Amino acid sequence: MRPVQRASGRLARQRLLAGTVFATAVLMLTSCGPGTKGPLVSPHLGSGNRPVTSGSPSPAPSSSPSWERSYPAKQVALGSASLSLRQLWQETGVSIIPGIGLFSHLPAPAASNYDASLSQSQFAALVAANTRTIALEQWAMANDQSAFLPLLEPLSQVPGIVTQDMEASPPVPVNAPNCIMFPTQVSAYAMTSTARAFLQANNPSVSAQDNIVLEETFTAPSSGECTFTVPANGASTIAGSFTRSYVALEAGQYQDSPPVGPIFFSDASGPCSGSGAPVAMCQRQG
Q: With 80 as the cut, is the pLDDT of residue 226 above it?
């Protein structure tokens, strides 16, 4: 997920983790129990025989990209999909195939600074891949697709209360609000030793393959508060909440693998308000 105030986490990713005012319940309901952190899983798209491309993105083609053809027009159960779609998606862990419409009308972040090592087209591709990844995470949580999440982020980055709901019998849908999930501003930088040291302090096992750091700003709605509420034992638990904008860093890598398509696979994050945060990458931190 995205960072909310936990020591790590993409669902607490910059969306649920960064230097925000976080409910203490999050700290007590992580995937490994109170006061502990599990090993950082490093699943990668393209495991087995599925090809995967990692690193900096290639410029986006002008025509409709081939990955779009891997998605049905509308969401469909895996068992009811065409043979070709079932063959594409059967190893991803989904029981439902998301429709291509999932990527329509997504919140578009204001894209600003990017590292000199990236071209403008590469930066645009990174931002687009990151936005698609968030949409897929949000969809997976709402549709009880916990087995699909490891293709998008390590499960150690997802608050335990979320995976508990998704894996319950019957599963409990988790609806994460856009203000928690989608950043309103994004910048991109090449990984540096300073950034890696800072992120390792928040995430003990930062992947050696992480070569991109995103600076993401999350903004509270006009109502004044962004709150992520998760059903728990017949009641509701606040998993994350903030009332003012916050800025966080998220480290990862661009990956492109069928049938999912281009994503930003993130396995480490930290708030720009944190001690040791790289100043050059936290330019919007007040």
A: yes
